[in-house]
Amino acid sequence: MDLIPAQELEPKTTFNFAPMIDFLFLMLSLFATLAISKVTLFDTNIDLVQLKPEKENSLYQSEVHNVNLNVDANGKYFWTTEFQNHPMENLQAVQNELIRQYDLGLFPKDKSKTEILLHIDKRAEWEPISKLLFTIREAGFHAYPVYEPEKEDDNDKARDNRTPVL
User: Per-residue pLDDT tens for 28-64?
Assistant: First the structure.
């Protein structure tokens, strides 16, 4: 009777690959997630534009044609002119209107000289906004989300001036 069994003294001819496969799967998952995140977060080429008053912006407007599109809190699209908002039925209607006005010669021949300014409601969901961005890019134009500082109304001022209840 031996203290160490004979099976333990024999050299092992197999190697357990399960931990290595698990590790490789985790690494593959990590890099796939990073690649997708980088594309969706950093490679979208979205620039934020702040509107300036007309007086400061008069020379710039003569070079570039601006189109204003609105996305409301419900995800509805509106084509905004100086006079009114025109509701757009869907994304295809937005794309068709962009192409129609370009074909009519209402936009500069160089599509880079036409800026689509997106006025987005702060309560709007991301899905209709992203679909609109991709629709505008399919038409060959660049979209620029616009930042407009919020205007304080009397209710906000009254809320800020009240004393906290302890």
Answer: 999 888 877 765 655 555 666 666 655 544 444 457 8
List, in sequence order, the alpha helices (H) in 10-125: 18-42, 54-63, 91-104
For residues 113, 69, 133 and 150, what is the CA-based torsion angle, rounded to 10 degrees? 110
Q: Where are the domains of the chain?
A: 49-147
Q: Starting from the edge strand earliest in sequence, which strands make up the sheet with 65-71, in order?
A: 49-50, 142-147, 114-120, 65-71, 77-80, 85-88
- Short-list 109, 15, 115, 25, CA closest to 64: 115
Domain 49-147 annotated CATH 3.30.420.270: yes
Q: Record the tokens describing residue 166, joined without a space.
A: 């302890």
> Do 69 and 79 touch, CB atoms closer than 8 A?
yes
109: Cβ contacts below 8 Å, ≥ 6 apart: none
